[in-house]
Structures are given as structure tokens and as C-alpha cells.
Amino acid sequence: MGITSIIAIMVVLILSVFASLSIITSKGDLNLSLKTKDSITDFYKADYEAETIRNDAYTIVKDGGNLDKLIDAHKDYEIAILDGGSGAKLIQYSVQVDDVRALNVELRVAKSKVEVNKWAVEASTDWEPDNTLQLIH
Question: Could you list the residue range(s) of the whole structural domain that residue 111 is in?
């Protein structure tokens, strides 16, 4: 066993470690990419549902109909119609994005116009910190 054998063994060992690290990093990147894809898909589904409700509100207002039709048309969602002052009405509803987020919408209806006051993704559950610290698995 000469010095060349020892160097060859060290090179193979180092390359094996780098290959293992590369595989582990790739798996982590794949998992993160899949979570991101799911999150974005969930958001756009919720956004589509919220936009559908907004379009229906616009159609009802444009046709001079009663806003209670909106509640009847979308029974899967809790839609609140409130007095917005100065003869305006506020329409509030929430579309669940995932387990912890909801798309909260508030529309203002005044003089046959529907304006968006709020269109925001917010936490739908209370945040509780994880106070556990695992040093050894």
C-alpha cells in the first residue's frame, strides 16, 4: 500500500460524501418546491372562488337585484351584508386557502358600483409558537 492508494481511497471517500450531500440537498429542494406549488395552487383556487363571488355581486348590482341573491347563490361561504353608511352596503366574505390561511374580502356597493375595499390573505387560526427545542433526535 503506497501513498497513491491512500490518496485514491481519500478521493473516493470525499467524492462519496459530496455525492451524499448533493442527494440530500436535492431531496430538500424537491420537497420545498412541492410545498410551494401546493401553496400557490391553493391560493389561486381560493382567488378564483372569491373572484366568482365578486363577479356575481357585480352582476346583481348592475341588474338592480337584491344582494340577498348573492347569499343564496353561494351558500358554501359565510357572506355578510352590512350597512356601509351613506346608502352604501358592505359585502364581507372569506374563502379558505388552506388549513391556516383564508382570503378575506370586503366589497363596497354604492350607486351601482362595486369597489374592493379589502382583498387579503390572512391567518385563519391563532398562531401558537413551538416552544420545544429538540437537540437530539
Answer: 3-123
Q: Which three cell numbers stand for residue 68?
A: 340577498
| 129 residue type, one letter | P
Quote the cell numbers at residue 98. Answer: 388552506
In this prediction, residue 137 carries a pLDDT of 64
**Residue 117, all three cell numbers:** 375595499
Give percent above pLDDT 70 in the chain: 99
End-to-end CA distance of the chain: 40
Overall number of domains in the chain: 1
Q: Which three cell numbers stand for residue 111?
A: 350607486
List pLDDT tens digits, range 67-101.
Answer: 899 999 999 999 999 998 888 999 999 999 999 99
DSSP state of 124: S
130 domain-assigned = no
- Whether 35 is in a domain gets the answer yes
